[in-house]
Amino acid sequence: GESVGLHLPTLSVQEGDNSIINCAYSNSASDYFIWYKQESGKGPQFIIDIRSNMDKRQGQRVTVLLNKTVKHLSLQIAATQPGDSAVYFCAESFSGTYKYIFGTGTRLKVLA
Amino acid sequence: IAGITQAPTSQILAAGRRMTLRCTQDMRHNAMYWYRQDLGLGLRLIHYSNTAGTTGKGEVPDGYSVSRANTDDFPLTLASAVPSQTSVYFCASSDSGTYGYTFGSGTRLTVV
Question: Is some CB atom of chain A closer than 8 A to the CB atom of B95?
Fold first, then answer.
């Protein structure tokens, strides 16, 4: 069945460096993708999204890249800050639905 | 502050007992969802509702029921709790005009 996975369960990054969190998805029909951030004890928060007709989308300090050829999604965080420490999830959805399949999450640890 | 309110924040429940987790949103979103989050498994959809008066089953619906009598409320009921239902439960909502979810802060449920 369809699945969304993450390559690295934990990522440790030095403060000020850039972070890259990766995600693989299995359904080539998925046409919408979201990255969520979840801080300890809180619910996931929307970070950035991208549709399948795009390869790249930028937000404030974050960039999402979509490679449909290899079904790969990545989240880049520039100048990583202590407040970026959290678990990051990717999620995919299928055209015509509002339901998502979530990855298991990558924990980002920012080292001072 | 607009958003989703979940109650209770946490609960310890004896096995066999009935429990209702409450979820209320004030954003007038059409769709609402219940997810459970377990370590290593990510977020899994329990039930959803695309609009008031309708509900549907998600990935892991067994042992749970929902109702959607109005737009704002989407309670999740465990008819007879079992230890495998120990989890963190998140309610979420989305607007039919957009795809991103807004999540509540979660309910941590422990069934003993």
Answer: no
Neighbouring C-beta atoms of residue B77, cutoff 10 Å: 13
Query: What's the rounded Cα separation, in Å, for the pair A17 and A15?
Result: 6
Cβ(B93)–Cβ(B31) below 8 Å: yes
| DSSP run (H or E) holding A35 | strand A30-38
The identity of residue B62, as a single letter, is: D
* Residue of chain B minimizing CA distance to A35: B100
B45 in reach of chain A (CB within 8 A): yes
- pLDDT digit string, tens, across residues A31-89: 999 999 999 889 999 999 999 999 999 999 999 999 999 999 999 999 999 999 999 98
Peptide bond into B75 cis (omega under 30): no
Nearest Cα neighbor of B45 from B26, B62, B24 is B62
Q: Quick check: B104 and B3 in contact, CB under 8 A?
A: yes
- Token pair, residue A102, equals 């979530």
Size of interface A-B (CB pairs under 8 A): 51
In whole angstroms, what is the distance from residue A103 CA to residue A54 CA? 21
Q: In what order do the strands lie in the sheet with B19-25?
A: B4-7, B19-25, B76-78, B64-66
Q: Which of A4, A95, A98, A101 to mutate to test the interface with B (most CBs of B within 10 A)?
A: A98
Residues A38-54 have pLDDT tens digits of 998 899 999 999 999 99
Using CB atoms, pick whichever of A49, A99, A105 lies closest to residue B45.
Answer: A99
